[in-house]
UniProtKB/TrEMBL annotation:
It comes from Leifsonia poae. Residues 1-26 are annotated as: Disordered. Signal peptide: none annotated. The lineage of its organism: Bacteria, Bacillati, Actinomycetota, Actinomycetes, Micrococcales. It holds the Pfam family SUFBD_core. Belongs to the iron-sulfur cluster assembly SufBD family. Residues 143-365 form the SUF system FeS cluster assembly SufBD core domain. One of its GO terms (biological process) is iron-sulfur cluster assembly. This is Fe-S cluster assembly protein SufD. Residues 1-12 have a biased composition (Low complexity).
């Protein structure tokens, strides 16, 4: 059992007072929830790449988003219509901004400091509905964005965030789920090959509410997506899924955080990725914290990676912290490997060529995640996109 960090002793040392706020603690951070957070980028030091949260990230490639000047003006987007769903821009003084969480790293804080208006998506009505919000013309200038997604009590919806084209984007997305509401959020990254995207998704989940968060990342030069789910209400539920496919030179990163803060909450985290090509790189870090009030917690997280060629690398780091002994269950797992020879032999023995057998294995490996979306049209399109990834580069044999 893990205890919370000790409260640091106050000091009036001049050097201590002059240091950035996050460095003033007299003891190291001991639990995931004790990390420093601020909406002001000036409160964070320069990122060197040696920090725990950045040591797997190519920080030089993201320097303009981490510390550069960002354009925070509203942008053009397309959105489908559905009863009970509205979108619009609000000013920085809107009371809903910051309701779901605050930045824990400099890139997130830089985006927060720079945005001029936030895009609000409001969802109401008990009838199930599906809406797609598309961003396809952000351009290649460094940009900041802030989005708030709020669900009224007992509402139900699937919201698809479709990202295509050019982008050098740092953003924060806040999700505020009302009591007994159900939201499936699907974020699809199909950026151009040279795109840069750093995003933090903050979710606070109310009593008996359920969030299904699905991240599908197929495009972009560097994509770093960090979903954080706060199970704040009793009986709340979070399922976080991810599917990613990295080609040569791509860096696709996910840092997932689930905080069980209320009683009788449940979470499941499943991320699966495939890699092929020289310097293809994926990173998955999964943090689950079961707080002292979260009795009756039921949680499990897992990450699976399939390395298709030499020269590709997958890093996978699951973490679990438990601050109460009265739980239903908690566990985590991680595995990275190549093809199963028995699977390939079975398919080849039935007249399937080796290349096609490998494609079938990868398609089946990732389809578990895609099938969670619940939108037949989007699932079919993403399956076709994965197939195109497999056909673009010949999968090398072992």
């Amino acid at each position: 059992m893990m205890t919370s960090a000790t409260t640091p002793t106050k000091t009036t040392d001049a050097a201590h007072e002059a240091a950035p706020k996050h460095m003033r603690s007299a003891v190291p951070v001991q639990t995931r929830n004790d990390r420093f957070h601020s909406t002001d980028v000036a409160d964070f030091p320069a990122v060197t790449g040696r920090e725990a949260g950045w040591k797997y990230t190519p920080v030089a490639r993201l320097a303009e988003l981490i510390s550069g000047v960002l354009d925070g003006a509203p942008y053009v987007y397309d959105v489908t219509t559905a009863p009970g769903v509205t979108t619009g821009w609000v000013g920085r003084d809107d009371a809903r901004i910051g309701a779901a969480g605050k930045p824990e790293d400099r890139a997130s804080a830089n985006a927060w400091s720079a945005f001029e208006q936030a895009l609000v998506v409001s969802i109401s009505g008990e009838d199930a509905k599906e809406v797609t919000l598309t961003r396809s013309s952000l351009g290649d200038a460094p940009r900041a964005a802030h989005t708030i997604i709020e669900t009224a009590p007992f509402s139900r919806a699937t919201l698809i965030l479709q990202n295509t084209g050019q982008a050098h984007l740092a953003e924060n997305v806040e999700l505020v789920l009302g009591e007994s509401s159900q939201l499936t959020l699907v974020t699809v990254q199909e950026w151009d090959d040279d795109a840069l995207h750093v995003a933090t998704h903050f979710a606070t989940i109310g009593r008996d509410a359920k969030l299904k968060h699905i991240a599908v990342t197929l495009g972009g030069g560097v994509v770093r997506l960090n979903p954080a789910a706060h199970l704040a209400g009793a009986g709340s539920d979070a399922e976080l899924f991810g599917a990613y496919f990295a080609d040569a030179g791509q860096h696709l990163e996910q840092q997932v955080y689930v905080f069980h803060d209320a009683a009788n909450t449940r979470s499941r985290v499943t991320y699966k990725g495939a890699l092929q090509g020289e310097n293809a790189r994926t990173v998955w870090i999964g943090d689950v914290l079961i707080g002292p009030k979260a009795v009756g917690t039921d949680t499990y997280e897992q990450n699976r990676n399939l390395v298709l060629t030499d020269g590709a690398r997958a890093d996978s780091v699951p973490n679990l912290e438990i601050e109460t002994g009265d739980i239903v269950g908690a566990g985590h797992a991680s595995a990275t490997g190549r093809f199963d020879d028995e699977q390939l032999f079975y398919l080849q023995s039935r007249g399937i060529t080796e290349d096609e057998a490998r494609r079938l294995v990868v398609r089946g490996f990732l389809s578990e995640i895609v099938q969670q979306i619940g939108s037949p049209a989007l699932q079919e399109r993403l399956q076709a996109a994965i197939e195109a990834e497999l056909e673009a580069v010949t999968v090398a044999t072992r």
